[in-house]
Amino acid sequence: MSKHIPQQLLRGLAASLLAGVLASQAQATELVYTPVNPAFGGNPLNGTWLLNNAQAQNDYDDPDLKDRTSFAGTSALERFTNQLESRMLSQLLDNISNGNTGSMSTDTFLIDVIDDSGALSIKVTDRATGEVSIIEVSGLNP
């Protein structure tokens, strides 16, 4: 007596066997979250890309930006005056090491520098408000 296995049964058996083999090779792994933002532990090289991407999407116009950039529009004469005042103040403070005192007057401030045997006193008066600030430093050797 010969046994004949129907062909549909063979196909079903082969499909079940194939599914079993494939299912046995599938393995589950643990999911690991990796942050993108460097502020939260992500790669530091992502910072520039994230910043550029955020700035490209930003359509907010700062209304105070014009006020802050108006200083850059100073004239050459104003820049020269500011540099000259800064240089003169620096020279006045340098003279203290030689034991000399002095004063300086600008459009906005009156500055008096007094050296009293190693105790330096700088009096700054605001011309607009009359407010006086005194800076005292002790322990200087003239």
Explain what this protein looks like in three dimensions.
With about 140 residues, the protein is an alpha+beta fold. Helix content is about 40%, strand content about 20%. It contains four helices and four strands. The protein has a four-stranded antiparallel beta sheet with strand order 1-2-3-4, with helices on one face. A hairpin with a 2-residue loop joins strand 2 (about 110-115) and strand 3 (about 120-125). The protein is rod-shaped, with a radius of gyration of 40 Å.
Biggest sheet details: 4 strands, antiparallel
Strand-and-helix sequence, N→C? HHHHEEEE
Poorly predicted runs of 5 or more residues: none
How much is the average pLDDT? 79
Strand portion, in percent?
15-25%
Q: What is the SS-derived class?
A: alpha+beta
Structural Rg: 40 Å
Q: Fraction of residues in helices?
A: 25-40%
Query: How widely separated are the two ends?
Result: 126 Å
- Side by side, the strands of the main sheet go 1-2-3-4
Number of separate strands: 4
Shape call: rod-shaped
Number of helical elements: 4
Topology:
Elements: H1 7-25, H2 46-57, H3 65-69, H4 76-94, E1 102-105, E2 109-116, E3 119-126, E4 132-137
Antiparallel strand pairs: 1-2, 2-3, 3-4
Keywords: Signal
Protein name: Curli production assembly/transport component CsgF
Pfam family, one: CsgF
